[in-house]
Amino acid sequence: AQEIETAPLGNAAELEQFRIAYIGRKGLIAALFEDMKQVAPEQRREVGQQLNSLKNRAQERFDQAQEQLTNTTESVSSNNFDFTLPTVPNTLGTRHPLSIARNEIVRIFERIGFNLSEGPEIEDDWHNFSALNFPENHPAREMQDTFFISQDRDKLLRTHTSNVQVRLMENQKPPLRSIMPGRVYRNEAISARAHMMFHQVEGLYVDKNVSFADLKQTLYYFAQEMFGQDTKIRFRPSFFPFTEPSAEIDITCLICKGEGCNICKGTGWVEIGGSGMVDPAVLESCGIDPKEYSGFAFGMGIERITMLKYQIRDLRLFTENDVRFLRQFEGIL
Ligand code: PHE
Predict the structure, then answer these.
(1) Predicted ipTM?
(2) Which of 179, 197, 199, 242 should be mutated for ligand 1, with most atoms under 8 A from CB?
(3) Which pTM does this prediction carry?
(4) N or C, fewer C-beta in 10 Å, the chain?
């Protein structure tokens, strides 16, 4: 017992020596157990207990010494650490260009009193179509390349963010002034110009005496803030079931400044979305009296706006997650 308490255990070699001499299969303690045979039966119990505690104590000292040794080894190597070495560079991620554009759009509209709203991407027929004045069983439901997700065609992936307009008007009283960005889905083949999943930002303004002039001025302000002060805007007559009158929104091409290039196909103008005065039938569907209130609405493509702003030529870049593309947006919030 004395030996076990005092045997040196300062390094790996001493540790190994200790193990062989005392704990190992051919060590002293094993030999003592062997000798038990010669102990008188009435003493075996007591001797056995003593031997066991000797064995445990030896193991304990060994384990402690081993643990200490590993710790010292580690601290020795950390003493060798060169604190003057430069660190491994910590690469921060970048914000996705679509998020950058979305945030910028929201900020621009917030400055003129629009708040932010969101709605579900899985929608029912009422909020995506019927409340928006799409006639029952009208081919428009097909024309929008809808992904239906229930047999009865009542559950679908929203084809536009206009569903949020409906939800807003159903749940809140005018005046309403809201900007509603989000993801939308259409069953289209993926190409440089189209995707089955993309983003829109909807705008809705409902109050007393809202006019088409308000719509024009609002979008003109937006275009100038987003794309620069020389940006001009133009409205082309169009049709949507939920607005009357309706207009397509064009801005002057940022690349050629209206001179004509391959981005704008020589016209000097590029389309960024649709707009119009909220159809009285839609106001009524949502419980707002069209005799008291009027409103305008617009919906713009966020991919389209981002591509124009950053001169991105292929929509697929947004979903490929190629870091060579994403890193170009480093530091932009
Ligand atoms: N929802 C239409 C679309 O997806 C855009 C739009 C929104 C048009 C609001 C007019 C008013 O094409």
Answers:
(1) 0.98
(2) 242
(3) 0.74
(4) C
